[in-house]
Amino acid sequence: MDNSPLQVLTIATAPYPDQRPGTSGLRKRVSVFQSRRNYLHNFVQSIFSSIDLRDRQGSTVVVGGDGRFFNRTAIEVIVQMAAANGVGRLIIGHHGIMSTPAVSCVIRKHKAIGGIVLTASHNPGGPDGDFGIRFNTANGGPAQEAVTSKIFQISRTIEEFAICPGLRVDLTTLGRQTFDLENKFKPFTVEIVDSVESYANLLRNIFDFAALKELLSGENRIKIRLDAMHGVVGPYVRRILCEELGCPASSAINCVPMEDFGGQHPDPNPTYAVDLVESMREGQYDFGAAFDGDGDRNMVLGKHGFFVTPSDSVAVIADNIFCIPYFQQTGVRGFARSMPTSAALDRVARATKIELYETPTGWKFFGNLMDAGRLSLCGEESFGTGGDHIREKDGLWAVLAWLSILANRRQSVEEIVKNHWLKYGRNYFTRYDYENVDIDAACEMMEDVEIMIADKSFLKQRFAVEDKVYQVEKADNFEYTDPVDSTISRNQGLRIIFSDGSRIIYRLSGTGRAGATVRIYIDSYEKELLFEDTQVMLASLATIALKISQLHHRTGRSGPSVIT
Length: 564
Known about the structure:
single chain; 20 helices; phosphoprotein; TATA-Binding Protein; cytoplasm; Alpha-D-Glucose-1,6-Bisphosphate, Chain A, domain 3; alpha/beta
């Protein structure tokens, strides 16, 4: 057996112009990573080169992915390149799998310099699906724009990368593996860890597991249904909810991670989580939840399929936040929501006199507030909810937060939400997604809408649909000044705000798999009409939104791909 040090090579390469990380890193079809020579290598080298050499030498980096196709191939490349770039230790999830919340947890626990997350989140997987790679910084959260811009600039001029091609890691065996490299004084170390246990330990310090166990397996237990959608969170659900908290194994479905997510779209919304929605409608389960591919998003359902919007979900958790022992100890520093998310959370913040922040879409904005000690709970309308225990949205944390509320209130999901509406009024909210739209047509439409709403004559303009009249109070392209470091984020979405507080928002999403995704958000507050159908209540505003944008005409679409 050859025990000589492993060779480190420097390989010439050529840059690609399209490696700008979006809000969720670099996402492309798998075929792009497979067919373009050194495409993955270039981006990985750009990540490592963005870190100062003095900080990189001997550092610890966490690596984990959602188990989708190309995950293992990418990890092999990352391991070889991390060693060659001076990283001292890699911590990798067993079999290369680690949920995005767990990656954040492990980064923070081990004081790592950062982590590389391999996921395309809720996008389809498999050989014909998507793959993604993202860098999280030392706080455990997505890299700030200054970091991603630096990565992108390096990727545009890269000429070479460093790699140790002979290095092979066994991802199937827990424990430490060491490797001697030429011209390196210290061995390179790889630790294969049980990320479920690290993450479970964190949750035990946040929630009352004894109360949750009584709720889920005691004499007056409730019946729940959890759908992991063949994503990474399956093993976490089985270990924590079933083995530790006593749920029957049959409560958890689609819990085996699969490279193609069982051929399904791992997006926890009523359109794609069909298995869960149908089983909940039958009425035998009291609580249901679904999770996305990498475990950071969640959908909550009550008995008979009662749907809790993500905007309402974070507002209800905020109003019942002291049902969670963690917040009894830490107190509540602030609430936050992304700009497109409904204003339901604002009403709780106002009533409780807790500071409310409205940020652009992207969890990194929340992370900055958390690091500054200004934020405890936050959420996005895109099925993301989380607290300041980590710096990522956290699907399983949100579910345990809801179960804590159920254990404390001893009411059904529907009763809790409807009581919330009676107390605060209701924000009717919907989102229309137009996926895979021609990018030129989408950008042209957005530019024309911005020109229209920027005209002074647009203010005070009235729009009438049947018996309803809406008058424009404010219109702009949302701009955010971070209260922590004063950085300014411009062009974060076109907003039309009417005199009654109703809002229409247009955004181009950065998380789609091909072409452009145009999103229209509609939010309208009602103090009295609390139990009407959302689409019926918002039909007039939807008509106005389509009239202003001429979206169907401009894109050739007759309707949205997804409605949530």
